[in-house]
Specification:
There is one protein chain. The radius of gyration is 22 Å and the shape is flat. The chain has about 325 residues and is α+β, with helices and mostly antiparallel strands. The N and C termini lie far apart (about 50 Å). Strands 4-10-9-8-5-6-7-11 form an eight-stranded mixed sheet, with helices on both faces. A three-stranded antiparallel sheet has the order 1-3-2.
Length: about 325
Amino acid sequence: MSQELEAVGIDAFDEQVYRALLARQAAAPGELAGELAVGSERVARALDRMHDRGLVGRLSGPRRRYAAIDPQHAVEALIQERTVALGRVRSAAGELAGLFEAARRGDAKEVEIVSGREALGRWFVRLQQEAKQQVRTLDRPPYALTTANPVEETAMRGGLTYRAVYAPEALEWPGVLDDIRRLVAQGEQARVLPGLRIKPAIADDALALMPLSLDLTDVRAAVIRPSSLLDALTDYWRLCWTLATPLLAPPEPTGPGEDSAEPGEEDRLLLALLVSGLKDEAIARQLGWSVRTMRRRMSRLHDQLGAANRFQAGVIAARRGWI
């Protein structure tokens, strides 16, 4: 078995599965199991482990399928993670001493610049750990490390509220829509809004983290503490939240005289994706349908809503609480 990735924490069998998936680009566990002559559950567990490490993404649809993430970026992230591990330990004492000294003097900087993917990842985890009530985010690609947030599910179980506004292009990223579905089922409030150009995360009204560029070759972010800048960023998030379309939210009761027949989850998701601005091909891919099936389902929803076009369908669906 190949073991080139063992140095970044990927064992020999997982690497073998990853190589098989790269050759296909996308596959179900059973398909890879047949090729590797092993059990499909063993392959599925390997794919889940690699999903957690950012090497593969889960595709939406009725079948359990995975897509390989470009190794040029995914493996490079793992390499950097291991490369900087000793450096983090070496610098930890200096960072802690600096924080201690700033707290002692009571003059911690309102804006601090951090550099590197690993520093960004550490601050994102720290921001969530320091939140007492809620975490608010604007989310869009590209992703410095992985699309998954390892902290959110545990934090929500502990009572923390998460509200996220996603850019439509985030929904096209492999596995992201499935991740959102899982998080919404556990309590995340999700909306979608075209045109997002920044991707801050805000803990309560006390701390924010915002990448200064979407260029992954030069990862820098601002850590923003209470200030007029944090107030402005929070106000901007609230504006985006107000303008955004709910994604996978439970339907509201219908009013007098309105059609009480509510659409299923897939039709409500279809409406939300259409309103968010995704193209037919991207919507069909995310839902695991053909473009023809997607358009046929949309035509039926137009008839059900009494709408002549997508804009009218979105307005009526929003009024009924379908999206």
